[in-house]
Design a protein that fits this description.
Radius of gyration: 21 Å
Low-confidence stretches: none
Strand content: 5-15%
Structural class: mainly alpha
Mean pLDDT: 91
Strand order of the largest sheet: 1-3-2
Shape: elongated
Order of helices and strands: HHHEHHEEHH
Helix content: 55-70%
């Protein structure tokens, strides 16, 4: 009598199909990459739900968070924001247009460089990002709740090591 096996997850089913169709290839990397990708998609959906509760996209949340992390007076140059949020300056301009129209940021000429601009949080923007970030942290804590503290620490250590090899720290 065989013992019941656990149902295969999405990635394991794909791997089994590839093993059947291409037994000449080692599909074991899919076990890590496929699951990491799947986890990323599922986490993104849950993160986006919180941003949307505050009327923000992920990108807009990132901009407000980058400004808030700058400390008083909560401002940065648009190029800095683009670098911090890993988008093009064109994409940043669109985000800033939406945030400015919503009254969450202002743009003004730089006092240091007459050609440059400075983006700053408005009081409404600061209040919104403070509330949204607190909700974001509660959400992230909830998403990690199925892992023990030890498991979460080990996972963070592995991901930190791997990320440093893929994207060396500056």
């Amino acid at each position: 009598m065989t013992e019941p096996t656990e149902p295969l997850d999405h990635v394991a089913r794909i791997q089994a199909e590839w093993r059947r169709e291409r037994p000449d290839l080692d599909v074991s990397p899919q076990g890590v990459i496929g699951r990491l990708h799947r986890v990323g998609v599922l986490l993104s959906d849950q993160l986006d739900a919180v941003y949307q509760r505050f009327g923000l996209s992920e990108g807009e949340f990132d901009v407000l968070a980058a400004l808030r992390r700058a400390g008083d007076p909560f401002e940065r140059a648009p190029g800095e924001l683009a670098a911090f949020t890993m988008v093009t300056t064109g994409a940043m301009t669109k985000r800033l247009d939406r945030l400015e129209a919503a009254g969450l940021v202002t743009r003004r000429p730089s006092a240091v460089d007459g050609r440059g601009r400075v983006v700053a949080l408005t009081p409404a923007g600061r209040a919104l990002i403070d509330e949204a970030f607190a909700a974001h942290m509660r959400n992230e804590r909830r998403m990690l709740a199925d892992l023990s503290a030890d498991e979460a620490a080990k996972l963070e250590e592995l991901l930190t090591t791997w990320l440093a090899r893929l994207e060396p720290p500056r």
